[in-house]
Write a structure and sequence with these properties.
Largest sheet: 3 strands, antiparallel
Radius of gyration: 18 Å
Number of strands: 6
Structural class: alpha+beta
Number of helices: 6
Shape: globular
Distance between the termini: 43 Å
Strand order of the largest sheet: 1-3-2
Order of helices and strands: EHHEEHEHHEEH
Strand content: 5-15%
């Protein structure tokens, strides 16, 4: 048998090893480990005993960190990512999620009522959907 043909698909891997996950976020592995210990980045999934970080979960975690120029961003002269605890998690309203998905807000509310999409109530009345739950739903992950 000859050598195996190269993969003709051009897609990024969904599961990343520790070094690749840190590289994907653009940070050193030591900072990556520190942010996991502090609970600011997700831990790995284990596939056959191998630790693998889900790219979609890393994307969702990154959205919570402050951006430069935001009121919660810290000035830092070092190359390290200084993560502040945001005052509120990054969430969607049914209206903003409907814009993202190009559907109606009522469709999003119906998905929540059916249990297809996790959500919570803020202040007892306002329906909110966590970014991580949106990304998991888009990725087709079971709840």
């Amino acid at each position: 048998m000859g050598p195996k043909a190269a993969d003709t698909y051009s897609y990024p891997p969904r599961g990343l090893c520790r070094e690749a996950a840190a590289r994907y976020l653009g940070i050193p592995t030591e900072l990556f480990d520190d942010l996991i210990q502090r609970g600011q980045l997700p831990g790995p999934r284990f596939l056959g005993g191998t630790a693998v970080w889900d790219r979609h979960h890393l994307d969702a975690a990154l959205e919570v960190f402050p951006t430069a120029g935001s009121s919660s961003a810290r000035a830092s002269t070092t190359a390290r990512l200084e993560a502040a605890d945001p005052p509120h998690p990054n969430v969607y309203t049914p209206e903003t999620l409907a814009q993202r998905w190009r559907c109606s807000a009522n469709h999003v509310r119906n998905m929540v009522k059916r249990g297809d999409l996790p959500a919570f109530r803020s202040g007892g009345r306002l329906l909110r959907i966590r970014t991580a739950d949106v990304i998991s739903h888009e990725a087709g992950e079971p709840r």
